[in-house]
Amino acid sequence: AFNRMWVAGDPKNPHILYSSKTGxxxxxxxxxQGTGNPHVLAVSSPDNPINGIAELNGELVCLCQNGIYTVxxxxxRMVGPFKTPANRGLVLKYxxxxxxxxxxxxxxxxxxxWGGGAVRKVTFAVDFIFNKKTVNNIAYFDRSNxxxxxxxxxxxxxxxxxxxxxxxxxxxxxxxxxxxxxxxSIDEVYDPNQLVYQNNESDRNGIS
Length: 208
Description:
This protein is an all-beta fold. It is 2% helix and 42% strand.
């Protein structure tokens, strides 16, 4: 974003945003000696880590564990952070993605959409998956299984949105949202422990 590299996730300073020099992604000074501008910014607090960095509407977006903050760049100087009205945050580092003109992300009780103001919950119809309930033999999303966190991401392809996750039975599932029909469906893919492909699109599909 803005011809710079932006990083976060320092275990000792999880709330700190780091910026490279413009056009020099290998250079991360604390203060740019040429401009005098700082390249380190405290976005939130140590107990509210930055779990994702995005760009939306010309601003840098910091998806923190509890809330969303934005940062602007003014003549090479970081301005902010600005706390947004979002009352939810990103709970897993990989579990977010762009959907049309919004950012969709996983919070504690489901998936939310954010376009710059307040958040909008999009998973009301499948709430049980995110709230430790099994319905119609469909087990819930197991957030305690950290081994597969990198698989838990959100992606859009055409008019569908996909969320990958491991359920409480240890199976890899794809939760699919159909934008045109406002409808969720689910695909059971495989048991990651056995790597056996299942391709089941019958009784577990069309759940809402």
